[in-house]
Batch of 3 targets.
Target 1
Amino acid sequence: DWLIEAGQTAARGEHEAALAIIDRAATLAQTHSAAVYATISHPFGETPNFEAMVDTILQPLRQFLYGLSLIREMSLQSRDLVLSFGERLSARLLATLLNARGVAATFVDARSWTVTDDTFGSAIVDWPATQQKLNDLRPYWADCVPVNTGFLGSTPDGRTTTLGRNGSDYTATLLARGLGAEEVIISTDVPGVMTADPALVRDAYPLQRLSYWEALELANFGTKMFHPRTMIPLIESGIPMRIRSTMRPDEDGTRVTVSADQSSERPTSVTSLEQMALLDIIWKRTSGQSQVGERVLRALDRAAIPLSMANQAAHGQSVAVVIRIDRVAEAIRALRDEFALELSRNEIAPVQVTQPVTLLSLVAEAMARTPSVAGRFFGALGSVGINIQAMAQGSSSRSISCVIDAAATPVAVRTVHDAFNFSHQDVNLLILGKGVVGSELLSQIADQRAELRDTHQINLNIVGIANSKKIALHPEGMPPQAWSEALKGSDTANTPDALRAALTHLRHLPVPVLIDCTAADDMEQLYTEAFHAGVHVVGANKKPLCIDRAAQQALMQTARRAHRAYSYETTVGASLPVIDTLKNLVRSGDRVDLIEGSFSGTLGYLTNELMSGVSLSDAIRKAQERGYTEPNPADDLSGLDVARKALILARELELPVSIEDVHVTPLVPQEILDQPDLEAFYDALKTYDTEMNQIISGVQAEGKTLRYLARIEPRSPGGGPKLVVGPMSVDPTHPGAQLRGSESFVAFTTERYATYPLIVRGPGAGGAVTAAGVLTDVLRIAQMLRGR
């Protein structure tokens, strides 16, 4: 990079500034060489004069830069010569250091044997001539280790060329072919070819084996580990290549051979080629479209603009190509020249440019024999709301690619990586509320975390937790057992701004989920911000679903438009699949005629206790001690909680109702519920015990059972929907008569389930079951995004 900068600076006439850049490079080379030499305990021969050596090697460059400053121009040919000094310097210094270490080494300038054409910047190798030169040179290397310059060549008349940036690997495979090597080893900064860019996917890992063709696809689609042409000599010679870590040379790394691992059906890797532009060429005429694609490719080829992807619509009216963003102006000029006549006649639309974009690709040798790869690929991207602007799949079926907005690159790469089960899927959680449900959820995550990771490949990370006063964020995740200490040690107050900042952080993590275990008001605004930020929501809070109907519908629409999941199963039946069952009935076209049930495990428990002879005040106190009630039991007895649940189910049927439309009768008189504190509340309950006992005696005398029920009639005799909540006496054959403890039930009477209602029954109260339902919703989101 410094060499290019020096050449460009000289071409502007700034000779002294260019020399200053070379001085900086020289100092770096001298300092590093001396530092390496100092680590050799018993060096051989005289101490090298690195300063003089570097100056001697770079002196011709200084003179050449002076020439560039006079002509004020740097051609591609000049650029190649300038670039060559980096390899010539480093290879000569390495050979010197090896000799000092006692390893007989000799410097070899690859220009002495790599014969190319004069395509400067990306020269084409003349293999027969190159092979002959290698055969001639090989005897002179004798028993020395030849240290070759990388990515350099020369034309037959001796002009310096380069094979392209990252072309040193290409030089290595050319040399291997010419020498009949057993293996080529590339040492780099990662432990092999990774399943994704580690900078984007934290749990990307190295592949054990690749085929030449997979490696070639990866190189073409953005893997910067080797030059696309690196594979050509290997394919032609059958020599394997190994890629491994410089810092961990004992590890196997990735072995690239003729064939891939045939036992694996998983795709190889997901790559992202960034800083690209999408060009659309649209043909307006009804004839001649078959030639449009050919002419586009020919025009870009004449301009020496490489294509990363080209796609022509089946009808031939439009062509889309993907090129590097820095070549857009050249490409537009080339296309305008090619279609000048058609543009003047308005037979072709002006070239449309979308930039910056990313070319996202999935590569797999086994893709052709694995069904539904394309469906899972695009389905995973669609599930997180990523728009596909263009797509292509090669005839070899080794890869599938699409063009996406550049800003979506990190999310897209992580999503595809997770969807194809390359590794554990991270699910990152921000949990609001540390009450009964929140605390139990954290406990269940702690208990299940290892099982979920090992058996289901889902890794739950708690990156934030909040109570009503504080919020604690841990970007790398915190142990579920440490949440209490995390909150105590946090200095961040739980404010709207702090929650927004937490969402901003969360949105950049894989599968971000906001979990609301509170009963707070006005949470719909936070949910909306979460959806816009790309965060999924799991809510045990009923209140956002019971707001004004228009606002509630807008909230749901926001989630759909943002392609975010909003799961709220626990708002009605704790861990019971009540909402999911109702959704499936509606989706399948069934007509719901009646929904009836005990929606409150708390009130179910209380009525059971009352029927067994326990006084009302004692039953409520016992329920509170067991965690069945809200902190203020009056909230349960009012029936408002049941009314909200009834409203949620009614809205799942698209009924135009609000909370005011629910006719609610509390379990106890309103004056008891209006008591100012808990002690006064229990005192008032005691005074009502006698009357409640009389009510129970009357119910028992009729051979019935008291239950607190909700009834939803979508089409009542009056014509409109009817929602009723309150204490009701039921016959022994009624589904609610058989409830035990805190059990709840919901009965769906429908057109298909007319004679015998569809009944969902089970525990309906308690932190443990509600937390289990919340965890189930989280896992459902993870599985949905994973596509399995």
Target 2
Amino acid sequence: MHRLVAASARRPGRVLALVAVLVLAGAALAAHALRPSAATSTLAGHGTTEYAATQELHERFGDDAIAVLVRGDLPQLMLTKNINTLLGLEGCLSGNKPQGVQAPGGPDGPCGQLAQTKPAKVVYGPATFVNQAVEQITSQYQSQMSARAAQAQKAGAAARKLALAQGRSPAEARRLATKAQQLVYAEFLKGVLQLNLQYGLGLTQLPTLNDTDFVSSLVFDPSRGATTPKARFAYLFPSKRSALIQVRLKPGLSDAQRGRAVKLVRQAVAMPQWKLQHGSYVVTGAPVVVNDLTRVLAGSTLRLLLIGVIVMALVLVLAFPARLRLLPLLVALGAVAIAFGLVALVGAPLTMAGIAVLPVLLGLGVDYAIQYQARREEDGGAAALPTIATAALATGAGFLVLLLSPVPMVQGFGVLLVLGVALALVVALTAGTASLALADRRRGSASPLARSLRGAGELLDGMRGGIGRALGPLRRAGARGGGAVLHAGVARPGRVLALALAVALAGWAVDSRTSVVSDLNRLVPQDLSAVRDLGTLQRTTGVAGEIDLLVDGADLTDPRVVNWMRSYQQRVLKAHGYSTARGCGTADLCPAFSLPDLFRSPASSSTRARVRALLAAVPPYFSQAVITADRKTANLAFGIKLMPLDRQQAIVDDMRRRLDPPPGVTARLAGLQVLTAQANAKLSDPLRRLGTLLAGLLVVGAVLLAVYRRWDRAWVPLAPIALASGWSALVLWLLGIPLNPMSATLGALVIAISTEFAVLLAARFREERARGHATADALRRTYASTGVTVAVSGTTAIAGFAVLALSDVRMLRDFGLVTVVDLTVSLLGVLAVLPAVLVLAERRAARRRAAAQRGPEEVPSAVTA
């Protein structure tokens, strides 16, 4: 490090040019290639059962569905020309178009682009459902008619031959042959009538898409009302005033491809060709919400971060008593740009936790730069290098505990913080040194630019002085309070430490009672269209998402498996409030299209042959959604409402407890709803948060012990670090500030920031003691120098985070508030308690030295005394 600093001071121009190139390259890479991601791979580790099941579910049955809610009276939608409009829209969304025919809107329109990119694996819609039924009935009818015709011709020939053999006349033989043929056709018509009665179709002729009698008999249930759809088709016709189109995306799409698919679906639905008479569309679903929420959160974070940078700059101008007051902020911004450029270079995604790294890393970068710049201007900075490096090493080690998290995006959060801490230190030592060296060389310059810069500096000094005079009473009050705290720490260190410990114990006790908000409606802006539309979907259909059960076995056509799936579906739905009489109104879970829906009666699944025959008769368009072609994997789906993630996890746990598949069959819960609930449960678990804190303390302690090689030097900064986590938890509980999935990981931040403050202050105290100053005097000198810079860097970081509290996004607002509390408590707590710890450590060392001077023969009496 000394060589690095010396080289930067010798060639400041080259160093600044090199750093500037790296910063610009990093910023360009980040802006061009770095995109926010909320993929399922960021929520659950690849080794978990739920993640593997979700990947298999998507691979076999398609990714999460974009839902196009069609609003309007169902008879108006299905029994008028609207059904043709819907069929066209569904074909557009599926990316299908006849060969040689131009897509509606042209090749550059949404339908044309969907036909080119084909992001949909399958599209399920009401019009396609009716059209498939028409085609299937027509095909089966024609096939059976051909078979009956051949059978009738054969029967007629046999009757004619028999009549002639009996000596009857040719005319009589022809009459008997015709009668035999008619009997065959009559038997066929009898079978058709029986099917009509069984399924309520009322067919008198081959159906068509615009056959209102056929469509009405297919869709509606007269026993429940003339306009009420059949319950078994709820996944297509959720209510009397809606229909639902589901666009299941292909698995493996990148975030950019998924976002483009959402955009094209929205544009396609808005095309004039698909405008309904007395109806409208709403585009929503998990991919839409995730896409919009990620974009809005990223944009909001960046806007607020820009405001935060301005606020931090003002704090530095007013509070940092040094030349080049804005240099620490520029150094921190450069480190952030390089760090995120490296993330883009390796192709790593920018998760929501990664976005949260921005303000944390900016605050730490400012801190290192302020400490180094202040010490360099004070004594050349050489003595401070080991101290700053030790603080950075311990801080990075504290963040490494985040790698223990089972949630990949939290692991990425930790890796990015460690990378950022290292870069912030290197940039501070290189670009910071080079900038200060250039400033020293040009201090006597008489160039117009130099004179302008000096004039600007004098103007800033005048402003700072004026504001300082205005805040004089407040500053003097703060100084008196700080002096009183310092005096108490020196005069009564035991009492101060006992009080600090009591407060920390209270905080640890109430930490488990701090609420963790996981309700989507309370975390995101309510004016977000995707969230409003998701609420509309729930109000209309009764559900807003889907939990899937992936069932695997050697042969799922076994009646035992089909009957178990039907039984499990009924038991789970009943347990969570659903019944055919009440519907989905107040139920937490509702039925979605699943394999048991193809076997409405136990008789249809009584034998393996019947199961296979029915599956063979079902069009692949429907069967591919619930069972694979090899009959080894099936999907049992449940619709679920919007609800807090902890309640959602309780439902998932209950569904898992009820699993009792037959021997040879495995059943695994899967889907985005399962992964998000699981990730939230792991992040908000109080025991896991406590374990993270303990692991962080152990790692930081090990690093300090490795650096100092003496336990009595390692435990001194560690004591206030440990206590700060309890103080922070108590303040959060008293203020009623809840945690959320984004801020529940910030326990590591308390350790990291406290480590920074405590190591710097303790090291400066030892320097002052080494110069011969008494304990009390050394503490006063420490707090008059390093204490001031620690307060400035802490205040700057706090000001930057405080801007997040102004966000209209509840998740960001709570994250900002939690971080401000953590930083403030860490700063004030360490400043207040560290003197007491240092005094007690000095007394303990003095007793050990005295015991050593008395010699071994005096030790027993000393111990007795």
Target 3
Amino acid sequence: LPVAGAAAAGPREAVRVTVDGVVQGVGFRPFVWRLAGELGLAGSVRNAAGRVEVEAAGQSAALAAFVCRLRTDAPPRALVEHVAIEPLEAVRAVVCLAAPGFSIEKSVTGGAADRLFPPDIATCDECLAEVADPANRRYRYAFTNCTNCGPRATIIDDLPYDRAATTMAAFPMCPACAAEYADPADRRFHAEPIACPACGPRLAYRPTGAAAQEVDDDALAGAVVDLLAGRVVAVKGLGGYHLACDATNEAAVALLRERKRRWAKPFAVMVAGLAEASGLARVGELERDLLTGPARPVVLLEARPDGEPTLAPSVAVGSPRLGVFLPYTPLHHLMLEAVGRPVVLTSGNLSDEPLATDDEDAARRLAGLADAFLSHDREIRARYDDTVTRVVAGRESIVRRGRGYAPEALPLPVPTSLPLLAVGAELKHTFTLAQGARAHVAPHNGDLEDLPTYEAFLAGLGHLGRLLALEPAVVAHDLHPEYLSTKHAVRSFPADRRIAVQHHHAHVASCAAEHGIVEPFIGVAYDGLGMGDDGTFWGGEVLLADLAGFRRVARFARAPMPGGALAVRRPYRMALGYLLGAEDVAGADGARRPRADDDAVRRTWFDRAGLDSRPRDGALDAVVGPDGDLVADFVGRLDPREVETVRTQVRRGLNAPVASSAGRLFDAVAALLGLRDVAEYEAQAAIDLEVAAGDLRAEALPYALDRVGDLLVYDPRPTLAALLEGRARGVGREDLAAAFHECIVEVTAELVADARAASGLDVVCLSGGVFQNRRLATSLLERLAADGFEVFVNRLVPCNDGGISYGQAAVAAARMATAAGQGSQTPAARA
């Protein structure tokens, strides 16, 4: 290729430049070629495994400008982490100096310790314009892409990222595509998924149980007819199958819920563009940027009560928020344009199963869910569910990390000395592979509770490990011995290569690590459940921590969970657990705040012995009203046999483990307020409680803080007593829900203040699934900042258990570094 631009007179030199980061699959080599031509440089560029290598010859000033602009002018989806320069050895320098121009060479497989690759990228405006242009050869082609957009992580088999190492290897290029692919001046130069109607993947449509009947445009038309007729269509996307239906058709949405066995959890809705999203929900500036950005996640927005068009009521039952996303493939754009209305697009699986990706597997597992299939013949190499995100306190906060984000590397503030696998927990499972200062958090996998999800975990681990060329030498895992992730760690690694990480330490460490915090901090971990290092279940904890270790300094009082996991699904059981068996922490060193009077506490506990009948004396009359029927308000709506079973479980300690859980307390309060007795999905009761509270102003409910040994303990019995008294006086559920939220804010502020007094620390990291509660997280951020704390929350990984594996990796790396500093010979010495 001829060199553009005239070289200035003077001596020339030759250098080797290596560029590390996300520089493959993002149009980096064409960018280098154009930049070299502009600056009058000779030489070559090529991909190595995970990096770009350049040999360049020219004037010193031009080379200096070249190196500088590799960083400043890089393609938008590139991430240049490091640029190294060294003189070329003599023989190569002579060749480079004599070269007539600048060339793009074939990739090589070696040469880099770090192997990075980009996530999938939403269709760019240039490609969309071609799809909409009748004169263009890619008109209405559902797989149009270029170096700036299209599938990446979901089709890669190996690195370096070349077509032969992707699932596009099955589609030989036609002459027209081959010419674009070979032309460095074309935006499709080495666009590995390059395709057109003549040579690329094709759509296929078939009714369930039938052979494929239509292809290409006719296939799309068949699916559109089904959607408009109220039927459910399985649509093959980038990282897996979706189930689609008309979001404005109540019968269609109800049918999808029935088949998917997803009775209540809100569905995500895809709309054609930003205007349609703004018609359904309130879209702020940052939310707009997220909706239209290259990742195209599902964004949780505040729904407009009078939104247009009108969605089916069961799309988001009882939720003021709506999950909205925009099309991210040409197929989605074409489908939304043809349907002309919002479409529910939810994961292609039964609830709690892994996302379907393989065509045969999808045909088998989705046959009972979908009326028809809109598929294609390009294989999906890796499973990537859609990312779900939101805005909290003016910044993005990821709820589920998947397509468009994973597996982009996250930093490890303390580099790991050995290749590391962190296997995560159980719910919202992810795993993390780490090497050096980089952690690769795999996409959301589902709840790791059964064989199909476990097999999906193993497949994802094998694939990502191969791409990264990373063979773990150490594993980090949860303390819970029954998690499938823990069992995998125990089976796969010897004891001296395993590092057990306490669940809540992993939570707060995930927050600290993503913010680069390596000094000690105060960690607040509020979630549903996690195994503590004392053998009990934790969930409402304040820790003095750094990445390597922690000391527990405060907690919520314990209460039994009658039926164990059953109490999670039936919040009324958790309420009975608090009423019948809440830990008595009174009297040890005195309360930090006056509790409700003892008589009120006793009265509102239904006299415990008479819980399943009407009050036996007049002591409850002032609380329950003139008819003396508090039973009708809560216990009376329950099956008496169930109440008696729970009472027996609590009294005898039968399958009623105790937990200091903030999440379970939220569940209990939701049940006592009559908001939710049975949860159809995790945290539904707590979500109902947050919705009820809304933005109402309220005074905090009473509470007590007492010392139990070395721990400051929040006693919620006065809180629950006041809650019940308020209900009996006719105070609205919404007001009491708001007052409960303010109580938790006040309690947390006091617990954190006490931790500061004991430690002198003023950095706070908040993590755990309870902080998905927007009202609680926002109020606590404001309150602690006003109290002089520097407060951090998760942004890059979820605060729920989806961030646990990243926290485990950060802890394990820090422990290995500490052990090495102490001269330990085993990486698990600090475990």
